[in-house]
Amino acid sequence: KAEDLEKSGLIIAVDDKRPAISRYYDRFRDRLMFPLSDHRGNVVGFAGRKNTEDPNDQSGKYINSQETAVYLKGNLLYGLDVTKDAIKKEDSAIVVEGELDLISSFQAGVSNVVAIKGSALTEGQVQLLKRYTQNLILALDMDAAGLAASRRGIETADNAGFSIKVVKLPEGKDPDECARLNPAAWKKAVKEALPVFDYFLDAAVGRFDQKTAEGKKKISDEVLPI
After folding, report:
1. Distance from the CA of 66 to the CA of which of 74, 147, 213, 215 falls in 20 to 30 A?
2. Residue 128 above 90 pLDDT?
3. Using the 8-state DSSP alphabet, how is residue 21 labeled?
4. Among 106, 86, 88, which residue's Cα sits nearest to residue 96?
5. CA–CA separation, 82 vs 40, rounded Å?
6. pLDDT score, position 226
7. What does DSSP say about strands 113-115 and 93-96: parallel, antiparallel, or unpaired?
8. CA triple 217-197-146, angle to 5 deg
9. What confidence category does residue 52 fall into, taking pLDDT thresholds of 50, 70 and 90?
10. Of 59, 39, 43, 40, which is closest to residue 51 (Cα–Cα)?
11. Contact of 98 with 140, CB cutoff 8 Å
C-alpha cells in the first residue's frame, strides 16, 4: 500500500489536490540504489547516489532512507552481512565511510571491511563490531573537517577496548579511488596502518610548523586533548 511505502521512506507525499495515485513521488528517483542490510542480511533501508549532475537538483549526492522501526543508521554497518566472516578470519575490521569505498576495497581483494556511512563510529556500531573483532583499522576522512567526528568515534571505540589503527592513503582522495587506481597500494596501506595516536601526531606535525612558537602551540592544542 502507498501508506506503507511512505512509512518505509521509499516514496514522499505531495500535499496538493491531485488524484490519490499521483500524490506521491519516488524519493530515490534517478539514483543508483544500495540496499542496506543488517548483519543477518535483512534489507532494512536504502541509500541512493545521484546518477546525473543536474544543476536544478538541489538534493545531496547521497540520500538515505529515513529512520524507521527497522532502520537505525547508528546501528547499521554496510556490508557486514557479507564481510563478517572475513573480519573474523583476519581478526580486524577496516572501517570506511561509504558504500563505494567498501565495494572497491572488496573488489581489490581486501574483504574484511565495513562502511559506517559517515565519519564517526557510533556506540551501536562499536558494540556490533565487538562481536567479530577487537581490532579496527580506520580509513575515514581525517582532514580538518572530518577530524572532530572521527575523534568522537575513536574515543567510543577506545573506551570499548579496541586496538585502533589508521590508514594513510598513498594516492586517491578516498579508499574507493585508491583501491580502483592501485589495488596493490591499497593493500599495502592497510597492512602498514599507523597506531591511531601516531597518526594524530604525524597529521598535526604535517599541518603546522613545529619550528615556530605558534606552530608548536597549534600542534599541542590538537594533540594534548587526545
Report:
1. 147
2. yes
3. G
4. 106
5. 9
6. 78
7. parallel
8. 75
9. confident
10. 59
11. no
Write the DSSP symbol of residue 47. Answer: E
Q: Are 25 and 5 contacting, i.e. CB atoms less than 8 angstroms apart?
A: no
Mean pLDDT of 131-137: 97
Spatial separation of the C-alpha atoms in residues 147 and 143, rounded to whole Å: 6
| Cα–Cα dist 166/169, whole Å | 9
Residue 187 host element (H or E): helix 183-191
CA distances from 163 to 41, 160, 182, 197 (A): 27, 9, 27, 11
Place of cell 572497491: 104
C-alpha cell of residue 118: 559517515
CB count, 10 Å around CB of 163? 14
pLDDT in tens, 149-188: 778 888 899 999 999 999 988 988 899 999 999 999 999 9
Beta partners for 194?
166
Are 161 and 134 in contact by the 8 Å Cβ rule? The answer is: yes
Helix (H) or strand (E) holding 138: strand 135-139
* SS3 of residue 162 by DSSP: coil
Residues 159 and 153: beta-carbon distance below 8 Å: no
- Alpha carbon separation from 197 to 103, 133, 149, 200, 226 (Å, rounded): 28, 20, 16, 5, 8
Rg of the chain on CA atoms, in Å: 20
